[in-house]
């Protein structure tokens, strides 16, 4: 393995720590682990790098105080645990970073904050201002109010989206394993993967994870690396200092493809389709292959209830999701528009109808239900 100057020289870096890196097996906060990790982050901060810290652990930190032996399955108890644990977690970070004269700022996000454009911009401004003021932002999903229907699901994905939100130069994912392996590292024959250049390096790999007190496994970490758009290192907390120094530890994910705009990343990875619009074959060709806007003439059906401005999934004639976009009409308006040209609609219904169902600037192409790079 070679050194990684892109990590060592990063001007702004997102570091994510999973629950297992921060808590004991009983679900209580491990003060020594947190102090050791803060030592590393503070040192990188003192060297001139802006650090955005994405921290799991709120639910896990609440297990002990609530007398729970394991992560609850029901949403209400998860929310209660997060409510208790988040305060304890941030209090510990506040105390630990204070040893270096650093102040922390808590930023709690939900997927809904990324879905709503105004919330997205507010979160971006807040984090940028914290950094400008010399504060260390500590980001976590707001598990107290998140719902099963609208949530990030894991902080690996959140870290990748925060990297786009903040225009970070690199991401370090700290897990309970030291690298990506071809199989379960606890079993014989599993081979460590030092670098990932693209999907071809992941062929035949069995992705899994221990998930002792967290929600993410290797699948979520690989997905996070794929969408981050910047270099990503996956390793464990014990090797955090080496990873941040650009030393050849863990698994290094090279950036895949060109870095998307924050808007398209938000649309692809932080929104959920509120309904479905079915396209004919010609419209699929125009939207997916030729980068065109979706016009009423190419729509054959509409499913669900949504309002103008909501994200909706676009489906091919077989029902497969091929794209997602921000729709310009309410669901109830579209049936009367289907199969019509915009010129006809403007003449018969008025000039306000001479517009696309979804403009190409508000579209992101998906493949197999996931983002197409």
From TrEMBL:
Residues 275-354 form the PUA domain. NCBIfam families: proB (TIGR01027). This is Glutamate 5-kinase. It is found in: Cytoplasm. It catalyses: L-glutamate + ATP = L-glutamyl 5-phosphate + ADP. Pathway: Amino-acid biosynthesis; L-proline biosynthesis; L-glutamate 5-semialdehyde from L-glutamate: step 1/2. It comes from the Bacteria. GO terms for molecular function: ATP binding; glutamate 5-kinase activity; RNA binding. ATP binds at residues 16, 175-176, 215-221. The lineage of its organism: Bacteria, Bacillati, Actinomycetota, Actinomycetes, Streptosporangiales. Substrate binds at residues 56, 143, 155. It comes from Actinomadura namibiensis. Its EC number is 2.7.2.11. Keywords: Amino-acid biosynthesis, ATP-binding, Cytoplasm, Kinase, Nucleotide-binding, Proline biosynthesis, Transferase.
């Amino acid at each position: 393995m070679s050194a990684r100057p892109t990590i060592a020289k990063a001007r702004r870096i997102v570091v994510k720590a999973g629950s297992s890196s921060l808590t004991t097996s009983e679900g209580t906060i491990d003060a020594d682990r947190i102090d050791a990790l803060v030592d590393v982050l503070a040192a990188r901060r003192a060297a001139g790098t802006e650090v955005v810290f994405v921290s799991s652990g709120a639910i896990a930190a609440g297990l002990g105080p609530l007398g729970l032996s394991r992560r609850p399955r029901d949403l209400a108890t998860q929310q209660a645990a997060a409510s208790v644990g988040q305060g304890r977690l941030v209090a510990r970070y506040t105390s630990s970073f204070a040893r270096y004269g650093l102040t922390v700022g808590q930023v709690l996000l939900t997927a809904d904050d990324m879905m709503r454009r105004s919330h997205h911009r507010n979160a971006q401004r807040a984090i940028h201002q914290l950094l400008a003021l010399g504060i260390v932002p500590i980001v976590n999903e707001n598990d107290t109010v998140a719902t099963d229907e609208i949530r990030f699901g894991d902080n690996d994905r959140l870290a990748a989206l925060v990297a786009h939100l903040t225009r970070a130069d690199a991401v370090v994912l700290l897990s309970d394993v030291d690298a990506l392996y071809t199989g379960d590292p606890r079993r014989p024959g599993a081979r460590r993967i030092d670098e990932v250049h693209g999907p071809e390096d992941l062929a035949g790999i069995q992705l899994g994870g221990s998930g002792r007190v967290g929600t993410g496994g290797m699948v979520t970490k690989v997905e996070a690396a794929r969408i981050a758009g910047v270099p990503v290192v996956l390793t464990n907390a014990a090797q955090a200092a080496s990873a941040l120094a650009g030393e050849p530890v863990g698994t290094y994910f090279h950036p895949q493809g060109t870095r998307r705009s924050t808007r398209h990343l938000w649309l692809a990875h932080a929104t959920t389709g509120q309904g479905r619009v079915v396209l004919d074959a010609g419209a699929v060709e125009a939207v997916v292959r030729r980068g065109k806007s979706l016009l009423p003439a190419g729509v054959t059906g509409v499913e669900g209830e949504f309002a103008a401005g909501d994200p909706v999934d676009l489906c091919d004639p077989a029902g497969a999701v091929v794209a997602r976009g921000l729709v310009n009409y309410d669901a109830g308006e579209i049936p009367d528009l289907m199969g019509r040209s915009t010129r006809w609609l403007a003449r018969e219904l008025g000039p306000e109808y001479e517009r696309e169902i979804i403009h190409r600037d508000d579209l992101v192409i998906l493949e197999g239900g996931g983002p197409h790079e």
